[in-house]
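Many introductory courses stop at the sequence. We go one step further.
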Amino acid sequence: MEAALRAFEKSRYERTTIADVVGEAGMSSRSFYDHFASKEDLVAAIVEETGMQMLGELEELLLETSDDVQTHVDRALRIFLERLPASSIDLERLGGDAGRRVGEVRRRIVQRLTDLTQDYIARMYAAGRVPRLPERPEVELILTGIEGMCLRYYSEGRREELLALRPRVLRLLLVALG
C-alpha cells in the first residue's frame, strides 16, 4: 500500500498501472493479485487502513482532558488533515465494490468522529469550557463538510493549499461548534 501511494504521487492515480505499483513495491503481479482484486480494491484498502489509523489517533487525543479547547481541537484537525495521503485520488469516482467500500469507510469514519466530537464537547461543556452543546446533526454536518472539502482538495492535488487553510478551518469549526 505504501508503494502504491508512492506510485500515485509519481503519476496521477488514473495513469498509474498495477505494473507501476508492483514495480514500486518490488513484487510480482501475482503477489499483488493474491492481496487485491484490482487497483480500485487497493485504494479501498488504503482508505480503510488510513481511516482506522486516523480514528485511533483522534480517539486517543479527544479522550484526553485539556484546559485549552482551541489547542486541543487544532491538534485534532491537524491529525485529520495530515493523515490523508498526499496522492491525488478522486475517491468520488471509484465505482463498483471498491466505491461501495470507500463510501462505507467514509460513513463509519464520520460517524465515529461525530461520536468522539460530541463526547469531547459534552465534557468541555460540563467543565464550562465551551458555551453550548451543539446537537448531533450540527456536528455531523460540519465534519462531513470538512471531510468532503479535504477529499476534493486532495483529489485535485491541492494538499498543501488545504493544509495552509487549517487556521481558517479551525476558526470556523470552533465558531460552529462552540
